[in-house]
Design goal:
The protein contains three helices and no strands. By secondary structure, the protein is mainly α. The termini are far apart.
């Protein structure tokens, strides 16, 4: 999640693609700060992205929990 990758502006496109492929969208960022690096994001953007995924019915899980849920461990 960064200005160079997933943003609030292109989030729905990423979620649409993930849903259409019955896939996984793994989110990561370098840092979360009110003044993030080029590779980071703000707390507000992170919260909005997670909320939007939940609103659309996506499970939001740590990677280990997602692997367990998929029976991959």
């Amino acid at each position: 999640i960064s200005a160079r990758g997933l943003t609030e502006d292109n989030l729905d496109g990423w979620l649409d693609q993930t849903e259409a492929a019955s896939g996984w969208l793994v989110l990561f960022t370098h840092d979360v700060s009110e003044t993030p690096s080029l590779y980071g994001t703000t707390p507000r953007v992170l919260a909005r992205i997670v909320a939007r995924a939940l609103e659309r019915g996506f499970a939001v899980l740590p990677v280990a929990a997602a692997l367990d849920r998929a029976g991959i461990a």
